[in-house]
Amino acid sequence: MDHRESTVGQAGEDAVLTEVMEIVAPFNARRGAHLLLGPGADDAALLVPRPGSQLVLTTDTMSQDQDFRPCWWSGPEQLAAGAFEPPDEYPMEVGTKAAAQNLSDISAMGAQPTALLISLTLPRTMPLTWVADFYRGVVRACEQPGAQRCVIAGGDLGRGDVVSVTITAVGELAAGSAGLRRDAAAPGDTLAVCGPLGRAAAGLALLEESSGPEGGTAISPQQQELFTHHEELFGVCMRAQTRPAPPLEAGPAALAAGGRGGMDISDGLLRDAARLARASGVDIHLDDDVLAEEARTLEPVAAYLGRPPEQARHQALTWVMGGGEEYALLGTFPAGVVLPEGFRRIGEVREKADGVPRVVTGHVVSNVGWSSL
Ligand SMILES: Nc1ncnc2c1ncn2[C@@H]1O[C@H](COP(=O)(O)OP(=O)(O)OP(=O)(O)O)[C@@H](O)[C@H]1O
Ligand SMILES: Cc1ncc(C[n+]2csc(CCOP(=O)(O)O)c2C)c(N)n1
Ligand SMILES: [Mg+2]
């Protein structure tokens, strides 16, 4: 039997690492002058920071059935042919998403990613090829603009009942820079965002409501009609969920343009804007018309999922206001600053009106964002 057809349990740790290095070594060699010792070389990696830079560090875990489901990629084709990725996309997507959410946090500080450490917990029954595909997904995330210097510096392998991935990202920020900070939004600032809102949440609803471990239901003629007209949108939403591509250049660009407050939206606009407001001691007023307009584009997804028109509008707004995971970048810019390319105004920062920092909006949505516990 070709060893590639074996499971990670049959192959053992050394063979899995050999498989990993076949992808990682040439990847690092292409970009890693700053990586003196990389994966497999010693007890830890040696990384040379650019002179005059500060280190930026973050970590994030993604676990099966908390953050993704294998059946999203291998389930029955309820969403009509074409919308689902082929099943072998699953490991690549998990690698891309796990890396992307860490790269996004580095960018959201205004910094540039330079290295990732990757801990992979796997059931013994996972195919060896799963691991190689997972790393191809990580490489894909690092090939996005803004991550050109990011290498894979090392990691760890372990056994568990379900797949779990923990990635730690390292980045660099010029010495002396305060970075893009949650505590730096000031009254008078424009609140702007780079990247779409609500699509990953809409994609999650499509994936969760249209397929599932037990199968799912057949498509009605109305759904087929909506699918035919909006196939591209549905695909974009599902990919925003399974394979997010955060705007990694947006953080450094915001900082360079004079932006000061900022964070990425991982848990939803309302929840994350409230964090920004709290840390900065300000009120954040959202532009309800702009957000309602953005939500309108997602109404066909809600309609496809069976929501009647009024509910579809509300559902789409809930995705825009409460959905995270596609890692749009929220930034605040002093009045007079020209917003960098890709940013659009969605509100403003004001003095807090009554002692408690708040997000002010006229929209009432039932879901205020994601809590991981
Ligand atoms: N187990 C922990 N130990 C120490 N600090 C933690 C722990 N979990 C979270 N934090 C800190 O709390 C803050 C918020 O963490 P969180 O993971 O929510 O980050 P985030 O950027 O808001 O969200 P996301 O991880 O979805 O991007 C970060 O500064 C993080 O370092
Ligand atoms: C199966 C499944 N159920 C729910 C979700 C939704 N979800 C998971 S993590 C997260 C926010 C960011 O997390 P963190 O703050 O941990 O980075 C969201 C909105 C999903 N993706 N998959
Ligand atoms: Mg974040």
Automatic annotation (TrEMBL):
Mg(2+) 1 binds at residues 59-60, 156. Residues 42-172 form the PurM-like N-terminal domain. Mg(2+) 5 binds at residue 267. One of its GO terms (molecular function) is thiamine-phosphate kinase activity. Mg(2+) 3 binds at residues 43, 105, 264. Its EC number is 2.7.4.16. Substrate binds at residues 67, 325, 370. Mg(2+) 2 binds at residues 60, 105. Coiled coil: none annotated. Gene3D superfamilies: PurM-like C-terminal domain, PurM-like, N-terminal domain. Pathway: Cofactor biosynthesis; thiamine diphosphate biosynthesis; thiamine diphosphate from thiamine phosphate: step 1/1. InterPro entries: PurM-like_C_sf (IPR036676), PurM-like_N (IPR016188), PurM-like_N_sf (IPR036921), ThiL-like (IPR006283). Keywords: ATP-binding, Kinase, Magnesium, Metal-binding, Nucleotide-binding, Thiamine biosynthesis, Transferase. It comes from the Bacteria. Reaction mechanism of ThiL seems to utilize a direct, inline transfer of the gamma-phosphate of ATP to TMP rather than a phosphorylated enzyme intermediate. PANTHER family: THIAMINE-MONOPHOSPHATE KINASE (PTHR30270). This is Thiamine-monophosphate kinase. It comes from Nesterenkonia flava.
